[in-house]
Amino acid sequence: METQRSFVMLKPGVLQRRIVGDIISRFEKKGLNLVGIKILTIPPALACAHYAEHSNKDFFQHLVSYITSGPVVAMVFEGEFAVPIIRKICGPTRVDEAPPGTIRGDFSMHTAQNIVHASDSLESAEKEVNLFFKPEEIFSWTDGNSMWF
Ligand code: CMP
Predict the structure, then answer these.
(1) Which ligand 1 atom is the nearest neighbour of the CA of 9?
(2) Catalytic residue at 117?
(3) What pLDDT shows up at residue 60?
(4) pLDDT tens-digit profile of 92-105?
(5) Which of 10, 56, 124, 147 could form a disulfide with 73 if both were Cys (CB 3.0 to 4.6 A apart)?
(6) Cβ proximity of 77 and 86 under 8 Å
């Protein structure tokens, strides 16, 4: 058993579309534990740190201006193999490749606004969780129900 933490962010526009609950519900129903959550408008410096690996891409400026354009919902989920499982629930980055049943496949039309970000590796997850959350803002919990998932 490998319990992992992953960082998940609902991007600008998701609050306005009133689909926050629908999206969180997908992770909850899978059996993942929501252990951290906050709403924030990302400052440009934090956006640049978060997307540092894309700093040489031609879409980087657009990415930073979009992600800082309105409030996001930042979350930490915990569970067995949380990192790869959450990536599958979100679907591929390119929305034209995201199948129905995935979050991106069901809710987004443009890759630049693919509505959700999820850590792509354990290393990214650790970095991203630490960028957005202090240790005291994360609450691990158990409910005794893991046998049902
Ligand atoms: P995300 O998972 O947040 O990680 C990097 C983001 O860059 C990605 O989701 C997309 O929203 C965005 N992105 C990736 N490729 C492109 C692209 N070709 N044009 C614009 N944005 C992109």
Answers:
(1) 3
(2) yes
(3) 97
(4) 999 999 999 999 99
(5) 10
(6) yes
